[in-house]
Amino acid sequence: MIGNNKLILAIIFLPIIEIYLFIEIGAMLGSLLTILLTLLTAFYGVYLLKIGTIDNVRNLQKKIFQGIRPDQEILNGIFNLISAILLILPGILTDSLGALLFFRLIQNLLVSYMFKNRYNFSSRDSKKTIIDVEHKKSDD
Predict the structure, then answer these.
(1) For a Cys staple, 21 with which of 52, 92, 97, 101, CB 3.0–4.6 Å?
(2) Which of 49, 105, 38, 99 is nearest to 78 (CA)?
(3) C-alpha gyration radius of the chain
(4) What region does 27 belong to: left with phi over 0, alpha with psi -120 to 50, or beta?
(5) The pTM is what?
(6) Where are the domains of the chain?
(7) d(Cα 135, Cα 108) in Å, to the nearest integer?
């Protein structure tokens, strides 16, 4: 339920933020340059989606053929897809987020934040003792 509220707020406020940023950036750079910048990032997003997908599938196949788990390639593919979609969407904020997601440092920070404390195998858990017992009924 909480996630749905955040999604609704994002749907409402994202266009408002984008319009505000278009007005402010348009006032600084000019309307023509702002529109050209938005179109340029959209074409760049389409290009990266096409080229990045082909390269990612090649790397994924190479790892699979070598018998190596392609964990990093899958994460790269997901981030490249999200980045390209954000670049294709018109807007200054989405373009900025799309450009930031291409950096491996940002990707690694996001992954570590998302999976933090998901699987906690710390030394605190080693204090618990697990005793495995099988009970066998005998006819004595």
Answers:
(1) 92
(2) 49
(3) 24
(4) alpha
(5) 0.71
(6) 35-117
(7) 48
